[in-house]
Every structure is written in structure tokens, then in C-alpha cells.
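Researcher: Here's a chain I'd like modeled. Treat it as a single chain, no partners, no ligands.
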Amino acid sequence: MDSEQGGNVAKDGKAGKIGLARLCRPTGIFGGLSGKLLILTVVFMSLAEVLIFVPSVANMRLRWLEDRLSTAAAAAIAIDGLQTAELPRALQKETLMATGTRAIVLRKDGTSRLLATAEMPASVDDMYDLSDVSQLTAIKDALDTLVFGGNRIIRVFGPVGGDAGTGIEVVLKDTRLRNAMLAYSRSVFLVSILISLFTATLIFFAINRIMIRPIRRLTDSMQAYSDDPEDPGRILVPDRGRDELAVAGRHLAAMQTQLQKTLKQQKNLAALGLAVSKINHDMRNILSAAQLMSDRLVDVDDPMVKRFAPKLLRTIDRAVGYTTEVLSYGQTSESAPRRRKLHLVELIAEVRDILAIDPDSGVEFVEQLNSDLEVDADSEQLFRVIHNLCRNAHQALIAFSDAEPGSIKRITVSAHRIGSVVSITVDDTGPGMPQKARENLFTAFRGSARSGGTGLGLAIARELVLAHGGTIALVEKPAAGTQFRIEIPDRPVSLDDYRSRSLQEI
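Model: Modeled as a single isolated chain. C-alpha cells:
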């Protein structure tokens, strides 16, 4: 039954990966960036062609009308040279058909002469002066002809051959003009579509080669890496280019490499936690037996034994608690601090006694704080924090073989209160914190300053201080050595607690 369930889970996991892969893949050519880029290129090129088309069709209309005026002007000059009162009707009809107009008027020396006319309308719908036409007016008139023209009578006039004193005026129907404009528009539209598609295709292949393919390579690498992050072969091999995508590929490869190391480290930590959990029970039994035997030392009538027996008992009690320190850290199950007001000088003295510094080692332990200074904290947790910092300082001083002869090896613990915050400083005159340890400070199993250390003590110390709402930091100092500063604020007093205490005092 269990094997069937395991098989189903494996199948579900595999199906989930396949479904995720399908979701991550773009569907069709227009579902990816390349297809969208192709569509956008065509749209933008079409918009650009529209912006070009509007003034182009306006200029085409002006040229068409100017051609009609030029043709009519040539006929008018020829007719005017005949010096006859009126042309025969047949000749007028041929002239109007040749120019495509209904009437031709010649303006010369301040007089107007009707040269030819046929079916002269009673009124005209629009008049256009081609002597001075702005681009905006030309565009407006062209759009008006395209949208509303086709069956209107228009009157067009302009100069002849640059002579301001001579002008030509024609009356015509704008049907042929509109048809010519529509034919021109269709031609421009087809050419624009061809240019847009050709340009879009070139841009598509260029961008696909330069951008889309590297991006797809990055996404494929991320997907393959997510399927099996522990496989070194899934790490991206970055390009050697200098563009943004090449830089992104190198960063992705570095991130994948670092993540793989972290996953391997986490796997080792999980194995370590499992090993600790296995030996935790046996270690507790051994310490419990030592605790029972130590209890009997209290009954021994020896002043020296009675002096050290209580400290030995407290040390064994702490050892029982420390056996679960690594496992508690891995499960993030550190108990909440049981805070109370305590005299800091007594706690520092207990730290000094537990360190048991050998007088022959040359290491001094100096306390600089008032005897009445109180801190609102969990005594056991604060002891662990200060003891860990002092023990690290003591070990660093003992191992400091490069110290100059006659130099002072000293551990100084000082504290003072500012308002509702107690600041505790642990300072030593040792070699100082290495740069690698500074970069991974307070990081479990990486921030150790000495060979063989785990760095777990500083990580736990930070967690305990943060549980008190305080801070712990490495302080830069001009002289050699290491200095840590701990700041622990008092608990805020609620209004109900204040009132209850006030009533008790009354």
C-alpha cells in the first residue's frame, strides 16, 4: 500500500513538473516575445506609414489640381491669342473635355474672360485658391475630399506661369479627383503593407537572433535547473559577450552555482541535525547521571567542595540545555525569554567564574559596571550570550601567538544604562575578527573566526538578543581586538499593568 502511494506521489510530482513545463512554454508563434514583437513592428510601421500618407495624399491632390490649372492655362493662352469674341461651341467642348473642366476663365490685367463653358452650374460647393496653400490647409482639404467628396462642384483658381497679373480659374466636378485620390491611397496602402511586412520580418529575425534566442536560453536554463538543482550539468554556461543579456547570463550562472552550494550545505546541515537528534537522548541520560552524582557533593563536609558544588551543578544544568542547542536552532524553536529585573554584575561574575581563566595564561578579565545596574532580561539566555562572546574572546587571546612581548591580553565587559536601554560591551585586545568572518557574521556554520569553529554561537546569540527586542553588532575600533555591543531595551509597561501596580502600592 505504501509503495503504491509512493508511486502515485512520484507520478503526481512528475505530472506536476510536466504541467509546469507546459505552462512555462509559450503557445504558438504569437504567444512568445518574437510573435508579439512581429505584431508590434507591423503596427508601428503602419502607424508611421499613416503619418507619411496624410501629407502625401494632400500633396497628390494639390499636384492633380495644379495639373488641371496648367492644362487649362495652356488652352486659355492659345484661345486668347485667337482674338475672337467667342469660340465655336464644338471647340469649347473639345477644350473642356481635354482639361476635364466645366468652365475656364482667364483673368488678365484686372479683367475676367470666360473662354469656355458647358453646363455651367448655378452654384459651386467649394472654392480653392492654389496661390498660397499651407500644409495644414492642404491636409484638411484632402481629407474632406476623401470623406465627403465625389459629387461636388468646386472652383479652383491660381496664377499662370508665376505671373501675378495673370490667373486661371476652372470649375469642375471632384469625382475624378476623388477617384484619383482613392487609387493613390490604395497604392500607398499596399506599398506600406509590403514595406511594413518586409521591415518587420527583418527586425523579427534580427531581434530573434540578438535578443529572443538568448532570453529563451536563459529561461530554458532556469527551467532545467529548477527540475534538478543539484545536477552541476544544469548550470548555465554563460556567453562571453558584453551586452546586458550576456551579463545577465553570467549573473544567473553565478547565482545557480551559489544556490547549488547552499543546497548542498543545507543537505549536510539536515544530516547533521539528524545525527544530533539521535545522540541527544543518550547525551541527556549521561548528563542526568552526572547531575545525580553531583547532587551528592553538596552533602560532603568540605569547604572547597561546598564552594564549587553549586557552580558545578549549574554548569551541568546548562550542559543539559546546551545538548539541544544545535537542534533547537535548526527547528527555530528557541523558547521565548522569561524576563525579569536582574543585577547584571552578578551575571558577569558568574560568567567570569565559568570561564575559569588560568592566572598563568596572562589573560585579564575586567568588569566595568555599577553594582546596582539592572537589566530586564532572561537571566539564562543573557548568560548564554555574554558567556559565548567572552569565551570566544578568551580562546582568541589564548591562540594569539603573534602578540608582542609585554602586550596586555584583556577581556573587558562594561555596561551602562541610557534611559530604558542597557548597553553591554564585550571588548578584547586580541587579533581581531578576520575579514571572512566579518562577511558571514551571525551566519550559522559560516561565521566562525577560528579554525574548527561552527559559528553557531554567534548566530544563537543574535537570535536570543533579537527575542529581547535588542540588537547585537560588531563595533569598529581603532585599536586591535574585537568589540561587540549588545543593547537590550526594557519591556514596555502597559496601562493596565501600571494601574494595577499603582493600586498595589497604595
